[in-house]
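Annotated sample (chain length 125).
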Amino acid sequence: MIQTLVSVALGGALGASARYLVNVSLARLLGHGFPYATMTVNVVGSLLMGVLVVVLAEKSGNRFAPFLMTGVLGGFTTFSAFSLDALAIWERGQGALAAVYVLGSVVLSLAAIVAGMALARGWFA
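Output written by the structure step:
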């Protein structure tokens, strides 16, 4: 139990650090007017989650799931930030932009997890 907890904690630190780097990089590249970084990490994280679900199952690697899925991806993606960003846009009086952000994040993340699983299944076909 302690070993798994440490594994999740270390993975979470790596994932959170990666998310921070994405946030800083995209803010510098694209500005602060739209939460590009949060949307990006949610979509990329969903794609990676789809790949990992299949790869770990196919390779009997479920022992790595706490580190990779709960830790790294849990630290990298965050729907709590998504919710806060959507609310902030809404409260700025930009209801249409908030709707685009929410719909785009959800639809693209669902499409990304399907794509990730299909990609990984293709590797093992």
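Annotation: The chain has one domain: 2-123.
Annotation: The chain has a mean pLDDT of 94.
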